[in-house]
Amino acid sequence: MSKIVTLRKAGNSRVLTVPTDLDANIGTKYEVQVLDNGNVVFTPVTHKNIFDDPEWKNYDYQKDLEENPELQPLNPVGKERFE
Fold first, then answer.
1. Which residues, other chains included, contact 44 with Cβ-Cβ below 8 Å and sequence gap of 6+?
2. Terminus of the chain with fewer CB atoms < 10 Å: N or C?
3. Which residues of 29-46 are buried (b: 16+ CB within 10 A; e: fewer)?
4. How many CA atoms lie within 13 A of 43 on its CB side?
């Protein structure tokens, strides 16, 4: 598909209109590249959910809270007051 769009100014930004028949979802983030030949390429950004990784799916958060010394409650060392 080939469409012609016009670069416009909106506030301090430059805007390219995306035709509705392009079927792009509102809120989709794109990486923008300007190629050596002057072409501008918009590529949808895909984020990997690190919590879908099997290593994280089997991670025991409670066990880590109990065993990791950096995650243990601290005892007051000065004039701190906890109420």
1. 28, 29, 30, 31
2. C
3. eeeeeeeeeeeeeeeeee
4. 10
Segments forming the whole domain that contains residue 32: 7-44
Percent of the chain that is helix, strand, coil (3-state, to 5): 25, 20, 55
Q: How far apart are CA 68 and CA 59, in angstroms?
A: 14
User: Structural domain tally of the chain?
Assistant: 1
Q: Report yes or no on 14 lying in a domain.
A: yes
Asked if residue 34 belongs to a domain, the reply is yes
With respect to residue 24, please indicate whether it lies within any of the assigned structural domains: yes
pTM of the model: 0.48
SS3 9: strand
State the virtual CA torsion across 62, 66, 68, 70 in degrees, nearest 10: 100
pLDDT along the chain (83 residues), means of 10: 88 90 86 94 86 83 88 80 69
